[in-house]
Amino acid sequence: MMKLRFGWGPLDGPSGMRKNIELLRTVRDVVGPDIDLMVECYMGWTLEYAERMIPMLAEYNVRWLEEPVLPDDIAGYAKLNLKGPIPISGGEHEFTLFGFKQLLDAGAISVIQYDTNRVGGITAAQKVNQLAEAYQVPVIPHAGMMHNYHLTMANLNCPISEFFPVNEVEVGNELFYYLFEGDPLPVNGRINLDDELPGLGIEISDKHLQHFQIFE
C-alpha cells in the first residue's frame, strides 16, 4: 500500500485538477492494480472542489481520501463520506474523544487517523479505538512511529500502520526519527515489535545533533 499527497487545490483551477488526476494516474500505472492507493489533501480543498474531484478519482480505485476539507467542517465531511464513492478519512487534527464521537455519529469518516501525540496520549487514543470499534470504523494512526505501532498491535480494528521513510531532516513528525532510535523497519511490508527495550522500545539518540542548531 502507499499514499500520495495532491499538490493542487481550488486556486489552481481546472489545470490543477488535471494535474492531480495525472499524478494519480501515473502512480496507478506504475504500481498496478494490486496496490492500495490512498490520497491526501491535507485540508487544502473546499467542499465544492472536493465534490468535483472525487468522481474523477474513483476510476483509480482509491482506498480513501484523507482530510479533504477543514477538520471542523463535520457537515462537509459527512456529505462527502455518505455520498461516496471514495471513503473519507480524517481525525489527524481532532483532539478529544467527544470530537471523534461527533464525527462518527454524523457518518463523517470511514477511517479514523488520530495522531497519538495530539489526541492526548496512549490512554486517550485507546478510548478512541474502543469507540471506533463500536461503530465498526477502522483506525490507522497518523504517521506511524512507535507510540502508534503499539496501539495498532493492540487493537483488532487497526488493520494497518503508516510508515514514513526517513529521507531528510525536517522539523515536523519526522523529527521523531532524529531524536530516538529503535523504531523498526518494515520487512516485506510488515513491522514487528520486540521486548529488547522497556516501554515503547525506543531510546534517545544523539546521532543527528549535527543537523540541528541547539539553543540553551
List the main descriptive attributes of the protein structure presented here:
216 residues, TIM Barrel, alpha/beta, 8 helices, 2 domains, 5-stranded parallel beta sheet, two-stranded antiparallel ribbon
Rg calc: 18 Å
Shape: globular
What is the subunit arrangement here?
A: single chain
* H and E string: EHEHEHEHEHHHHEE
Please state how the strands of the largest beta sheet are arranged side by side: 1-2-3-4-5
How would you describe this structure to a colleague?
The protein has two domains: 1-90, TIM Barrel; 95-216, Alpha-Beta Barrel (TIM Barrel), CATH 3.20.20.120. The protein has helices at residues 13-31, 47-57, 74-83, 97-105, 116-119, 121-134, 146-153, 175-179; strands at 2-5, 37-40, 62-66, 88-90, 111-112, 180-181, 203-204. The protein is built from eight helices and seven strands. Helix 4 runs parallel beside helix 6. By secondary structure, the protein is an alpha/beta fold. The model has no long low-confidence stretch (mean pLDDT 92). The protein has a five-stranded parallel β-sheet, covered by helices on one side. It has a two-stranded antiparallel sheet with strand order 6-7.
Chain-wise SSE layout:
Layout: E1 2-5, H1 13-31, E2 37-40, H2 47-57, E3 62-66, H3 74-83, E4 88-90, H4 97-105, E5 111-112, H5 116-119, H6 121-134, H7 146-153, H8 175-179, E6 180-181, E7 203-204
Parallel strand pairs: 1-2, 2-3, 3-4, 4-5
Antiparallel strand pairs: 6-7
What's the short version?
This protein is 37% helix and 10% strand.
